[in-house]
Amino acid sequence: MTVSNAAPGAGVAPAPVPARSRKRKPRVLANTIAVVFCLVWVFPIYWMVNTAFKPADEVTTMTPIWAPLHPTFDNFTRALTQEGFLVYLRNSTIVVVAAVLLSIVVGFLASAALSRFRFRGRRAILVGILFVQMIPSGALLIPLFLSFQTLGLLNSYVGLILAYVASVLPFSIWVMRGFFVAVPVEIEEAAKVDGAGTFRILWSVLFPLVMPGVIATSVFAFIAAWNDYLIAYVMLKDQGMYTLPVWLAGFSTNKGTDFGGLMAASVLFSIPVVVFFLIVQRRLVSGMTAGAVKG
Fold first, then answer.
1. What is the spatial distance between Cα 94 and Cα 99, in angstroms, rounded to a whole number?
2. Are residues 171 and 197 in contact, defined by beta-carbon separation less than 8 angstroms?
3. Dihedral of the alpha carbons of 65, 71, 75, 80, in degrees to the nearest 10
């Protein structure tokens, strides 16, 4: 009878690492990166709101104050009572609403034509739209200014609205065209069999199906027109027609910058964008299949 001198457990393969443990490490790393990214993205917004509620002595201190020691609404009062606020708010509302509606209508019809109709030069138009979208908006500002000067559109709402529509239209067409291409042609054929005409199909069938693209376009157009400073400052000469981004620049003068009032005004300036997105985001998903079940 032979007695083995091998150590206990010798020759036994190590227990395999569970698949759950192997997947946990990449997931933890990804979550950590995501949290860091979110903190970096949220911090400027937090600091803007934080500064808006600080008195002047806490705003200009060299030591960071992470929360207002003596919260105040004086900055908001000073921002709301600044000269011309309601006038600039009215100007921004007129220009933004018109630019959003016009960009949606033109982009919807153009993307429908480029995706559903076959005609000579269609590919050239698509390449041209993509090329224009790649050009920085600042590079087109001088040609746009000279063109509008020749047409007599400077210092007018119409000229500013057209400038905003021209800046967002390439993006709008490309986004909505992708949704048009994804819609099966059989849906249109079924509508034609039922006797629907072209405009009936566009409004009752295709429009609900491409609603997410319309919403994405409207959000982009709203943000572009609402936040723009350069185009409004160049195209407008009359101060009574300035928009809110130009109004924000009024907090910086030769005497210095009112940082508290500027941050409070920036908070007020950001609220319409947030509200607009909250209103339209509910239809972002519901519009995906709404048109397919409508008669």
1. 9
2. no
3. 140
What is the secondary structure of 184-234 as a DSSP string? Answer: -HHHHHHHHHTT--HHHHIIIIIHHHTHHHHHHHHHHHHHHHHH--HHHHH
Q: How many of the other CB atoms lie within 10 Å of CB of 47?
A: 13
The pLDDT, as a whole number, for residue 288 is 45
**What residue type is assigned to position 156 of the chain?**
S
Cβ neighbors of 290 (< 8 A, separation 6 or more) are: 208, 209, 211
Q: Which DSSP string corresponds to 101-128?
A: HHHHHHHHHHHHHHHH---TTHHHHHHH
Distance CA 132, CA 109 (A): 19
Q: How confident is the model at residue 287 (pLDDT cuts 50, 70, 90)?
A: very low
Instruction: Note the maximum CA span of the chain.
Output: 111
Residues ≥6 apart with Cβ < 8 Å to 88: 242, 243, 244, 246, 247
pLDDT for 14 beyond 80:
no
Other CB atoms within a 10 A radius of the CB of residue 154 amount to: 17
Nearest partner of 282 among 212, 188, 183, 199, judged by Cα: 212
Instruction: Report the alpha-carbon distance of residue 62 to residue 134 in Å, rounded.
Output: 42
Q: For residue 108, which of 185, 35, 255, 212 has the smallest C-alpha distance?
A: 212
Is residue 227 a contact partner of residue 247, using CB atoms and an 8 Å limit? no
Q: Which residues contact 70 (CB under 8 A, 6 or more apart)?
A: 54, 55, 58
pLDDT tens sequence across 208-238:
888 888 888 888 889 888 988 888 988 888 8
Q: Say if CB 59 and CB 72 are below 8 A apart.
A: no
Q: Kindly report the length of the chain.
A: 295
Instruction: Give the 3-state secondary structure of residue 52.
Output: helix
